Structure formats: C-alpha cells, structure tokens
Amino acid sequence: MKQVFTCIICPNSCEIEVSEEGITGALCRRGVQYVQQELTDPRRNIATTVAVQGGAEPLVSVRLTAPIPKARIMEAAEAIHALQPEAPVKAGTVLAHDLLGLGADVIATKSVEKRQRISAGYESGLASVWQRYESTPHTQALKTRKAWTSSAAQTSIVCPSRRP
Ligand code: SF4
C-alpha cells in the first residue's frame, strides 16, 4: 500500500511517498524522519493566544516548547486557553510547566504590559473637555442660577409667584 505525506518541515513542502519499496520524494533526511515520526507517533506544536488579566492588550501569543502527540492536541488546546496570566507578561515567560504531563511547556511569545487605570493622553483629553464644558454659556448660566438659589435660600427670599 502506498501512502503520500506532505512534508511540513520547510516551505519546500515535498510530497513524500511511502510504499513497499521505501520512502521516496524527500529532498533531505529531515523529510524522511518526519514521515517516520508520522507513521509511528505523529506530533504537532500549538501556537495560539490566551487572555491576559489586567493587560494593556487583551491577549498574549503563546506556544509549546515541543510538539505533543497529535491525539492530545484538543485537550492541550483547552488547557492552554484556560490559562489567564496576570499582566505584565514578558516574552519567554513559562506560563505552564509540563502541560498535561506531555513534556512541553507553554511560553509567552510576546510581552504585554499592565493596563494603566487612565492613560496620560486620556487624562489630558478629559481635562481639556472639562475646561471647554466649564466655559460654555450654558454652564455659566447654571452656575449663576445655582449661586442665586443658594443665596436666596440663605436670605429666605421667596419667589414672588409663590407669595400668598
Ligand atoms: S523533505 Fe526536506 S526539503 Fe523537503 S520539505 Fe521536508 S525538510 Fe524541506
């Protein structure tokens, strides 16, 4: 029986045939090793993203340090997505050791800083909006009315329309 594999080791993507005659079509030894691995113990790596708590960005990219058995990929992906590291996260940080006992660690491949409560830009923007609001005629009128109401209350001024 003949089987055909597409080698995923490099961008050449050689079509490698496996038959009674042997393994043919590989341009290098790594392709032969890849096919032998596929026939005996197929493995894959996982590169994905996980949520970061309190991060300046919501997600951080992660990957496994070594390929794991193909049959355990879904289980491993679920375990990785359950990780929710707290910011700050530095690239290269191990987020999980020996994931599911498969001999591979989960590492961050990007850095994510801690989220600031209010960024400096947002704060200065807020101040300028507040300044503009304070200087509008409407706000000035409200202030005058408030001042008048409080002084009227202090001096017990009664509105003429409410006088008996
Ligand atoms: S067989 Fe060698 S050259 Fe061909 S895709 Fe695989 S690694 Fe690349």
Please outline what is shown here.
33% of the residues lie in helices and 20% in strands.
Could you name the key traits of this structure?
164 residues, binds iron/sulfur cluster, 4 helices, alpha+beta, CPE0013-like fold, 33% helix
Q: Helix tally?
A: 4
Could you name the ranges where pLDDT drops below 50 across 5 or more consecutive residues?
A: none
Q: For the record, what is the CATH homologous superfamily label of the domain at 47-108? A: CPE0013-like
Overall pLDDT score: 86
Radius of gyration: 33 Å
Question: What top-tier CATH class of the domain at 47-108 fits best?
Answer: Alpha Beta
At CATH level 3, the topology of the domain at 47-108 is: CPE0013-like fold
Described by strand count, sense and barrel closure, the largest sheet is:
4 strands, antiparallel
* Arrangement of strands in the largest sheet: 5-6-9-8
Distance between the termini: 110 Å
Shape: elongated
Succession of helices and strands: EEEHEEEEHEEHH
